Each structure stands twice: as C-alpha cells, then as structure tokens.
Amino acid sequence: MAEIKVLSRDIADKIAAGEVCERPSSVVKELMENSIDAGATSIDVEIRKGGIEYIRVSDNGCGIDPDQVETAFLRHATSKLSSIDDLYRIGTMGFRGEALSSICAVADVEVITKTDENEEGVLLRLKHGEASEREEIACPQGTTMVVKNLFENIPARMKFLKKNSTEAGYVADLMGRIALSHPEIAFSLISDDKEIMSTPGDNNLKNTVLKLYGIDHARAVIPVDYEEDNVRIKGLIGKSEIARGNRSRQTLFVNGRYIKSNVLSKVISEAYRNSIMVGKFPFFVLDIEIALDCVDVNVHPAKTEIKFSNEGRVYEIMYHAVSNALLGGREDKKKEEPIQNILDEKVYVQEKIVEVKKVEPYIPETKAPEVRPYTPERKPYIPEAKPYNPEPYTQKVEKEVVKEFIESTTFTESEKARITPPMQIREDIKTEVKEEVTEEIIDATEEVPVIKESLKPVAQVFDTYVLCEDNDILYIIDQHAAHERHRFEDLKSSYYKKEKMSQLLLVPMIIKLDYAETETVLSNLDVYKGFGFDIEDFGSGSIIVNATPVIASEEQVRDLILEIVDAVSDLGKCTLADFEEKALDMIACKYAIKANKKLNYAEMQDIVDKVLDLEAKGIKTCPHGRPIKVQITKTELEKMFKRRV
Ligand code: ADP
Ligand code: MG
Question: Is the pTM for the entire model greater than 0.90?
Fold first, then answer.
C-alpha cells in the first residue's frame, strides 16, 4: 500500500482554494463580502481581462490593524467566529476564514489597509501565499485588495475559464446582485478601463434597480413588504411587462445573502398565474428575513443553495407576500409613486454621489438619447399591403358563393376589397379533390382530415377560434396557432434560403441592456443579422436597432430582442438548429394574430386559407406542437343531442 503522507500547506491551500475560488467572479465575491462585513459604504471594483489578469476591490470599511495584516491571510483566520455556537448565529457574509488564504494560494495579492485608529496604513505583498514585501504607507481609511495573475500557477484551472468578456459578465452579474442586496452601499465596477456599472448607495432599492436595469424596470416595479410568523419578505417585484424569457432577472436573498432556489422561483410564478404569459419569468428582487437558526447557509460559503427548517411555511409566506403586492399594485394605482419622484430621486442621487464618491458624473438615463441623423439611404419603410397569394391553392371558394356572401353581408368597402378574389377552378382538379374529400370523410373519426375543398368561415367564437363548416364536419381553428405556424414556415424558408427578411425602422430604436446582455448582443450581431435585425452598439450599455424582421410595435420589437437575448444566453444548452427554430418562432409569434382578438370576415377567411396552405404541406400543429384545428362531426353533434344513438 502506498505510504500515507500529510499534504504540504501549499497543496492543501490549493485544494481549499479550488472550493472558494472557482473563477474571477468568486474571488470578487469573497473580497466584496469582506468589504461589506468591514462596514464599507462604498465599494469600487476594477477588473482587467475579465479579472484573470487583475482584480482590485477598494472599500472605505474599518481596515485591518497593522499587526493583524499577515494573520488575515492565514488559513482559518477570521475575526468573525470564535466559538462553535457562533456558527449557527452568524449574520456576516463570510465566516470560515478561508477566503484570503485561498486567494493568495492561487494568485499574487497586494493589500493596502488602514484603520481609523492608526495614522499610517500598511502595504503588504504576497507571492505564492507568502508575504514578500511590507511597508508602512499613507493611505485613506479602508482596504484595497489587488489580485493579479489568477491561476497562473494552476494551468489546469485556467483551462476552465471562459472568454474574458464572459468572465467579466459573471463579475458584473454578481456585483449587480450584491448591489441589490445592499442598496445602502455605493458600488462601481470598471472593466478594462470602462465603467460598466455603478449604484447610488442611497438606500433606495428602486434607484439601484434604475441604475442596473434602466428606467423601464424602475417604472414597472411594485414594492413588497410583508410579514407573517416572524418571516419578513421585502423588496420589489416587476409588473408583467418586464417579465423575461429566463430567470436572469430574478434575485433572491435570505438575510441579505444571495441564493438560488428554483422552488421559490416557482412559488413566485404561481402567485403571478394568469397575470403573466406562459414561458415568461417575472422580475423580482426579494429578501427573506428569517431567524438565523431557521436557516442553514453554512453548508458552504461559496454555494448559493439554502435549507429552511420549515420549508413549506416559507413557501406559503412567499406566495402570500407576492400575491398581496400584486393585488395592491392593481388596486391602488393612484397611490403608485409617480415617475417624477424617481426622477427627483435621481437628481438627489447625483448630488449624493458627488459628495461621497469620485465616480464619473451620473447621467440620468431618461434624457432623450440622441437620435442619429438621418442619412439619405435610411429610407423610411412604407409597409405595402401584401395581398394574399392564392397561387398554390386553386381550390378556392367558387366565385358565386363569395359574391353571394359579400352581397348578403354588410361589409365596409375596405373589407370587401380585402376578400380574396376567388380563382377559377379547373374541372379536373375539382373532381379529383372531391373524390379525395369523400374518401377522407369516411374515416373522419380516426384523425382530423386534411381539408381539401375550399372552406368558408362561419363565425368566430371567444375572439379566438374560427369556425368552419364543411359537409358534415365542423372545424374549429385556433387563430393564433394557425397564423403563427404559417408565419413561422414563411420565415423559416426565407431564413434558410438566406432571403432578406429585414424591415428598416422609421425611427431607430434605442434599448438599454445590462452588461452581460450588451455583450451577448454585440458578440452575436451576425446571428441577429441572420434573423433580419440591424443592430449596432450605442455605447453605455445601450444598443440601437435600425431594422427588424417584422413590422411590430416598438414594445413588441423590444420584447423580441430581449427574448432572443435570453435565447442566445441559453445557446450553450441547445443545438444551433434548435436555437434557430426557437428564434424564428419568437419572431413569428410576435407577428401573429393573437388570441382574444376579434376578426372581420376577411381576416377569418385569411386564417382558414392559411390552414389550408399548411395542411397541403402536411402541417397540422403550431410550432410548439399544439393542434391548429380540431373537429366535431355532425354525427357527434347528433349523438350529443340524442337525435341519434
Ligand atoms: P472571513 O471573512 O471568513 O473571516 P477571510 O479570509 O475572508 O475570512 O478574511 C480574514 C479576515 O481578514 C477577516 O475575518 C477580517 O478580519 C479581515 N479582512 C478581510 N478583508 C477585510 C476588509 N476588506 N476590511 C477589513 N478586514 C478585512
Ligand atoms: Mg471572507
């Protein structure tokens, strides 16, 4: 048997480091948590090359005493825990005394720190975990930690890191979450000399949301403050208009610590039931304040999972908190904070920042962005009324029927004009079709048959379904499913044939995104271009959209771009083909006639024609696999009415 050896300190530290420092963002997290524990009111982070080359975290907290500086870097050195009982009562962020020793095991570290009581501060440099240089220096109160050349001595770990911009995105995301849990602290993040985030630190969560996610979000949040059984839930939830296609805008804390919980996220979605579209995830920033002995968070400081001692109860309380806030949000609209207040607060925020922080001046986002001047080639798009193209389907309603129908119905002139002109049916096709139809109807009970004969709508019900009668069958068509699928097929064929499917916007649209999203969009401009978007960087976390694949309202286009951002972010989880289909479907869906929309006769006929068109290609479902049309036979009806047994 091999000899048992005690690991050297160096190796042991590197193993421990693996748990604590997985990537630059985890180092930033540990350092920021130390700054928060040190009582800082302002924390500035700077990273270079995604944090791999350089990380700096500066705070104005209590600082470290000169004769404690070296101790802080020893394994299990902590000022936050002295007995085992503390472990269960601990309210601070970090408490295992492992972060600093782990970080200095995998990087070069430099600390500059000064406490209030000391005249002078200390600069300490550590290389490979050992103090290499120390001097007394003059510096302001607080601590600056600089971490350089992360994982340089562990090439294996280096390999697991992603692109610099992706790593920077992780840092930005993490900082955003921490900033949301500490609106009383001013945070700023600089990445490769560019400021990409800053929060006011004015203890107003809405202002933090405003700075992180833009005015759309700040306008659409509802405050939550709810208490039951000593569990308090506080924060903001978003109205349905800012719901997103994934969970990226959902932030949950327990006693200020960022956690992830799919169950709680589901509970919250459940409270939104009926007020949010299927497949959309509501925005929220919520903190659960709960007695420390009811949670177990010390499983691992770097983990974001959590255990409650009475889980079911916490879920219930969360459900009540969110449903109550949603009800309140709907009921007393008048009480809603007018947006002007936010704007005033912003001005206040601006002054405050000047006072406490030396960051770049705060520029309120609401200031109308400069619209780029029109260049002659940017011709306004004039939508042409696209006539229905009846080409592939010669089996149209016969002229007389349509004429008779038009005459018997009161149509406006424009409606009349929109009714598809009937085609002359060739006698041979007619007979051929008739035969097939009779054949199909015989085994109609088996499966919904393909409608071969032209069909005319008879009515629309629930503003959602188009009814058609054909011989002895009543067809019920889902107007949205049919339209969406038809549009989807069109888009797909243009996309794969690389046909142009772009519409120039009359007024280019400026959309504010967060750091990670901007990165996602800008590094995938070709993907967007393929789908007919013309997008450019507009600077400071905004993009400018010049053209889109569909003509839709500004709100819809914004939605669509964000949906595709979400889908692109999830790209790693599916194949490219799946992604393409998903994106095309999103576009199709935005364009398609919705359920709950009243249709006129011409529109109903158009839907029916689209179903015929699709069925001729063997397509019977919407892109999500739901049926487009169902049927009830005359026989079935007769049975229902007991005319027949
Ligand atoms: P822990 O946070 O678990 O105590 P760390 O290794 O992260 O362990 O830090 C060790 C100790 O160093 C802390 O307990 C604290 O006393 C001190 N320290 C670390 N960072 C700071 C900081 N930014 N300001 C003041 N003290 C700090
Ligand atoms: Mg710590």
Answer: no
